[in-house]
Amino acid sequence: MPKYTGTEGQLISAKEAKLFTKSHQGVREQIVKGGKNYVEAEFFGLETFQKLMKGCNGKPVGFRVYYGLRDEDHDGDEPVVTANGKGKPTPRLIIVPVDADGVDLSGLVTVGGHKDMPTDDGQALVNGPICPRHC
After folding, report:
1. Taking a C-beta distance cutoff of 8 angstroms, is the pair 91, 39 a contact?
2. What is residue 15's predicted lDDT score, i.e. its pLDDT?
3. Which residues contact 70 (CB under 8 A, 6 or more apart)?
4. pTM for this structure?
5. CA–CA separation, 81 vs 72, rounded Å?
6. Which of 25, 20, 21 is nearest to 38 (CA)?
């Protein structure tokens, strides 16, 4: 396992970030035609993020963002999680605190599937308001 220091990642300019988002926005029609819900962005509140980090007793040095997919109905005012194929596949983000050894501190053994992950009552951050609905 790698040792993390909290300095990982890279800052890029807003101009470079626009190129990333523009490429994704360019495939919106394909995503919708493919029977999926299009998600441009997902918002997470700083207060909720801080609660997630505090719940780890000072152990996290950063976080890992997992890509998830679940069925949701976006026809109403707010997205509704569905089952039995009634909604459309919708990409969602799962934010998990990580310690210096690279271990997810979520307590969700199935996230990432690492055998050394804790199995206690850790938490993960999900269900941020999505854009284009809330931009």
Report:
1. yes
2. 95
3. 81, 89, 90, 92
4. 0.80
5. 4
6. 25
